Amino acid sequence: MEIFKYLEQYDYEQVVFCQDKQSGLKAIIAIHDTTLGPALGGTRMWTYASEEAAIEDALRLAKGMTYKNAAAGLNLGGGKTVIIGDPRKDKNEEMFRAFGRYIQGLNGRYITAEDVGTTVADMDLIHEETDYVTGISPAFGSSGNPSPVTAYGVYRGMKAAAKEAFGTDSLEGKTIAVQGVGNVAYNLCRHLHEEGAQLIVTDINKEAVQRAVEEFGAKAVEPDEIYSVDCDIYAPCALGAVINDETIPQIKAKVIAGAANNQLKDTKHGDIIHEMGIVYAPDYVINAGGVINVADELYGYNAERAMKKVETIYNNIEKVIEIAKRDGIPTYKAADRMAEERIERMRNSRSQFLQNGHHILSRR
Ligand SMILES: NC(=O)c1ccc[n+]([C@@H]2O[C@H](COP(=O)([O-])OP(=O)(O)OC[C@H]3O[C@@H](n4cnc5c(N)ncnc54)[C@H](O)[C@@H]3O)[C@@H](O)[C@H]2O)c1
Ligand SMILES: CC(C)C[C@H](N)C(=O)O
To answer: How many A from CA of 209 to the centre of ligand 2?
Structure first.
């Protein structure tokens, strides 16, 4: 990988490699764009096949956060961290504290939170070293685990997408195929079950599947069967790149709306599903509930205020669908347009320097 060429192509600002021999920390912090404010994005811990795969993931996810934060109307830029390692075996206190010191060294350019493989307890350890961390324990007056809030946002966004496809946003009686029933999707399934939807679920973790079967009367299928099941809505809530050349021909759903980041393997797959008439709720618009919730900590966390903002995901999905129709483009492009236009507007409106003692970083 020619790193600077890649950074230039997608206009990344900064990449930081963090190494701490004693704790085994190997982390990559990628900061994509700070036009709107400090870069906020979670920390993923994962066993990558190669260092290059880890760098690519950090970069791709950081850019996604720029778009997610912009589309959600947050005054935050985009960044992300990946820690190379197995979250079940390789974690220790020193690792997260060493990582916290690296974040502190960035002096507020990057603020972290949870992502796949990291937990509230990990954020609390980071918090021992820096204030530039969110998603920490409610005991600190903070918002805690963002997953249930992400799930609520996905539920609301799914309803907006359903309204476009079925003429009503009621999910009662709809069959919804949920791929992965982890932290977010378990809570999503609860909302869907309460509204009277029929659930089909899969996961590589059999216990997670069993819980959804017992609690929500879900029907279980094998992981590779989820794409082809008869359903109204397909909700990808596990991995990225699941909308691809192999899966698209199998999909029977009229709506794709789920929590996973980077669902389209390539942009061309967004074009294909658009041509098929599938209503696609762009991933970073529908799954912004978690980041909206943790970002509220920067103002002194208020759950009511945060949930009010999460509700706007319904309107944001409506807005994206409206732009897509107006401009005759797929929804993924409409979402990019919405985010890019906001960043551009803010960039242009900041032509004068004015010291601002009330900047969000001064309020903590
Ligand atoms: N947690 C959040 O607040 C949040 C916010 C925004 C986006 N997301 C994204 O949503 C997705 C889910 O996040 P999460 O926090 O629930 O993660 P999680 O790790 O708790 O859940 C993911 C689930 O997917 C399952 N899975 C993995 N590979 C699978 C496969 N091939 N087939 C079926 N199931 C498989 C895992 O066993 C796990 O149960 C991720 O892509 C994450 O990046 C999460
Ligand atoms: C809670 C958030 C800051 C990060 C979350 N994992 C996301 O992808 O949106």
So the answer is: 23
